[in-house]
Specification:
- It is a single chain.
- The chain is mainly alpha-helical and 98 residues long.
- It contains three helices and no strands.
- The N and C termini lie far apart (110 Å).
- The model has no long low-confidence stretch (mean pLDDT 86).
Length: 98
């Protein structure tokens, strides 16, 4: 068996070097984890705002389509109300027009 010439100071230097490496790795891991968390939160916020905007535009488009449809129906009803057939209030004659 071969014995090395290790002194207690070598063990102490190895221990402090090991501790320094652990500290650097732990600090790096912590910094990367915190950066990843905040990047995720920022990306999530941007994505949610984009989705909210798209949903609002889609709802607004639907509202505009419904308002246009109601306006057309309103004009049709007004036009029919001015005809003599419908304004006579003889519903048996007016129903086919409605």
């Amino acid at each position: 068996m071969i014995k090395g010439n290790y002194s207690p100071s070598d063990t102490k230097m190895y221990s402090s070097r090991n501790l320094l490496i652990r500290f650097i790795l732990g600090g790096t891991t912590l910094i990367v984890s915190i950066s990843a968390y905040f990047s995720y939160q920022a990306a999530r916020k941007i994505t949610l705002e984009d989705l909210r905007g798209k949903a609002f535009l889609e709802v607004q488009k639907g509202v505009d389509e419904i308002e246009e449809w109601l306006h057309v129906r309103n004009v049709e009803v007004q036009t029919l109300s001015y005809t003599s057939t419908v304004s006579s209030l003889d519903w048996s004659v007016a129903v086919p027009y409605l």
